[in-house]
Amino acid sequence: METYINLKEKIEEEKLEIIGKEIKNRKLVIFPTETVYGIGTNGLNPEAVKKVFAAKGRDFKNPINLLVGSIDMVKKLAKDISPLEYKLMEAFFPGPFTLILKKQDIVPNIVTGNSDTVGVRMPNNIIAQKLIEYAGVPIAAPSANISGKLSGTKSEDIFDDFENKVDYIIDGGQSDLGMESTIVKVIDGIPHILRPGSITPEQIKSIAGDVIIENKNLPSSNLKHYQINSKALLVYGKDMLKIASKIKEISLKYDFPVIITYSENSSNYKSSNIIELGSKYNLEEISKNMFNKIRQAELLNPDIIIIEGIEKNGIGLAIMNRLLNICNNNFILVK
Ligand code: TXA
Ligand code: MG
Questions:
Q1: What is the DSSP secondary-structure string of 75-89?
Q2: Comparing C-alpha atoms, which of 168, 183, 106 is closest to residue 134?
Q3: Radius of gyration of the chain (CA)
Q4: Which residues crowd ion ligand 2, with CB under 5 Å?
Q5: At how many degrees (to 10) do helices 126-135 and 13-24 cross?
Q6: pLDDT (mean) for 298-322
Q7: Ligand 1 pocket check: which of 183, 192, 226, 288 to mutate, most ligand atoms within 8 Å of Cβ?
Q8: How confident is the model at residue 222 (pLDDT cuts 50, 70, 90)?
């Protein structure tokens, strides 16, 4: 049985001290970060990390990032860090940014999928930061979801899947950003984005002078991601009215379609089952709500979920990456 700790309203430092020490002692803890919830333990202990793989049903080939509290901690985990890599960490730590570096021997092979690299991220969430501080070790923490499913951004979305599988669940309320970090690896002096996230290509380019967006090169790229129980379709393009008429046309073919749209556009779909992700002009709001709202749609058990896409500007790129994955690459581009 796990212990539930409610820190939604206020942080209780004594509890975080106890749980931080428990993490060092190889306990399994679900906790908030600013991106999505993580399921973590002592990242330097192979036996502990094995439990994370077991709880998630994760493929051992898929490496886990280490959450750190400082660049000094990174130096103990990684080697041959280049000036550009330091510059990127200084610009984007703490934050939704994971950097893939060459690993030191201290990092267990189970963390890195037997590769010679390690992913490091410094979370920008006080609960996560305190846990790392009190643990005194990096925390190996993938997203808190069963492998291949949607990441969890609210504790309610996580409880059922991990009941009796972890030692503690810390509830810190809804994740601020709602989308997993941008993953970057510097190759031949150029940052490559392996997974888009809330740190945008434009931001990385402004620090590094150059950036390459490369979405299909993660160790997990051939694994299933963001699978939901319903059939789902992404419809996008430039012309809002044409998109709306396409979505209406498709929805008529189904008995129980659910349409996922934005507050400005929902009036296009009167008489339908509609879920709004927020304002289409507020990408942060969309990102924050996305996984939770799609879970809500899935719970209605519809014949199809039709999702209206957005433009790939700024964090729109990362949002569309998740939506496309959720739809299993099933999309219509309306011209
Ligand atoms: O925002 C986040 O990054 C969240 C929070 C909890 O920190 N974590 C997260 O972890 O999204 P996860 O395991 O769900 O996704 C991490 C991705 C995986 O696709 C994994 O393959 C990749 O990072 N990864 C981890 N270590 C790597 C490495 N050494 N080289 C390349 N990719 C790596
Ligand atoms: Mg994940």
A1: HHHEES--HHHHHHH
A2: 168
A3: 20
A4: 143
A5: 50
A6: 96
A7: 183
A8: confident
